[in-house]
Amino acid sequence: MKKTYINGLGCISAQKTFDTVFLEEVEVLENSILLPLKTPVYKDFISPVAIRRMAKGVKNSIVASTLALKEAQLDTIDAIITGTGMGCIEDSEKFLKAILDNNEEFLTPTSFIQSTHNTVGGQIALGLQCKAYNVTFVNGSVSFESALLDAKMKIEEEEATSILIGGVDEISDYTTSLFKLAGYIKQELEGPYPVLNSTTKGVVYGEGATFFVLEDKKREQTYAEVLDVEILNQLDVEEVEDKIIAFLKSNTLQISDIDAVILGYNGDVEFDGFYKNISEKSFVKIPQVYYKHLSGEYNTASAFGLFVGANIIKTQNIPDVIKINAVEKSDYKTILLYNQYRGIDHSFTLISRC
Known about the structure:
Number of strands: 10
CATH architecture of the largest domain: 3-Layer(aba) Sandwich
CATH superfamily of the largest domain: Thiolase/Chalcone synthase
Number of helices: 11
Number of domains: 2
Largest sheet: 10 strands, mixed
Low-confidence stretches: none
Shape: globular
Mean pLDDT: 95
Distance between the termini: 16 Å
């Protein structure tokens, strides 16, 4: 059975995660409920004519995927697998608004065509002239993990040798206003909004696009090996530890073998207990990492978490800005990532130095 290696990555996020050293230029914004994106110079990657017709998510994904492929030194791949929770939501809103404003008449199809969730994968394929396997997973907050799992299975079964995978979501005005009304996003004028030890409900929201090149061979630029991925829908707080132990056991590991755990704390006091419970019990002697104070929360924010984990293994360093505790290790070989959103869609991802 073939192994799966991360051989390239590209990340567009609320931080300067391109053209810089890993988390060297970090900006922690604790007084904002929406984290603005650090955008690249799009014309360096996309023709100016095409840029005008592209949604944010598409532009960011093209840049992130280009960076990942460049680092992996590949011009083409055997598959493109994308995960997204909301798709190109801005164009969806534009189309729905046009329906209302024009009484369902004289509608142009452009916004509708560009609003579908698989627009990102399609645009990347067009740019690469790639006619291979192209799938988009829309599974809430495990959309990215679903893409990662699919890619890993294809490599293991020798159906592909190189796969581009990514997680992408974008912020849109109307949907954001609905999330505020529903209490999913923190209320204005209640700041600051720390992610750790938060006392309020809701999250600080964000957006981004993070892409990886997975291959069946280890190369000079390899970041890490993806050992396993598991997705679970509903768990009680008390069940998480047992599920993690079982997940590690299936990989002939135990908690003491983990060199760092990356947790998806998002500042929602109602649901961060899932992380706090294992932080204070089973993982109290393990280096702990968090990242959503840098990226914000969105359906595929866990892709940013994998970006962090892969870089920790490659650099053998955990920057202070993402440390939860003061525990350190001299060697970061095996890392566990755990994420959930509002108590459902739990995911465990295990990566290792190779």
